[in-house]
């Protein structure tokens, strides 16, 4: 995030990268490492401690190529404990640098007539500094880093892909191992589960339960597997009605978001 010392190290974002992919290459879908990495983690790599919320977050994205072809991505981001002492030490060093830089930028003039002592005990200033800066202490806190698993598909089976990713993550984090090795479930999804024919549904076994894909027929509207409820939650009823009106009147619509 640049040399932004106003932002504490745990609130900064760091560069992410693709750790592994399988299979290595698919003829109809060449792997774009930069695009997938950026779209899986659009805000970059994030760090948290045990005091922060670390619930898994799901989102989807589309990769559109120059020829107009599309592939759909579905991403589940979660947090794992950092086991590398080197990374934990680096985070602690970043906090020391942040504290020192902040003190230089915000040191009050020496001739200030406020009656405070040099120890910083005026109106609880020392306590507020501790609360602001010491949000990571290597001897006290546990450091977590964001990680992501993603499925790239030729069609937008959002609900099925979300269930697959959630069950894979559950299998990794559960104290009890799944009935079969994790690799067998991944192999089954990639090589043994076909796309359902147009107008049909397909049911296959996930790690902890069945998963269903439904594909519309050629005479129906295109596949739209996203919950409309979320549109109303994000935009509100009035905005949705306004958007629908603009669509009927064939106005150009631009959605801007962070």
From TrEMBL:
Record-linked Gene3D superfamilies: 3.30.450.200, 3.40.50.11500
Q: What is the lineage of its organism?
A: Eukaryota, Metazoa, Chordata, Craniata, Vertebrata
Supply one GO CC term from the record. cytosol
UDENN domain spans which residues? 1-258
Q: Which gene encodes it?
A: Dennd5a_0
The keyword DNA repair is assigned to this record: no
GO MF entries: guanyl-nucleotide exchange factor activity; small GTPase binding
Name listed for the protein in its UniProt record: DEN5A protein
Q: Which SMART domains has this protein been placed in?
A: DENN, uDENN
Q: Which GO terms describe its biological process?
A: retrograde transport, endosome to Golgi
Matching entries from InterPro entries are given as:
cDENN_dom, DEN5A/B, DENN_C, Tripartite_DENN, uDENN_dom
Q: Which UniProt keywords apply?
A: Guanine-nucleotide releasing factor
Q: Which Pfam families match?
A: DENN, uDENN
What superkingdom heads the lineage? Eukaryota
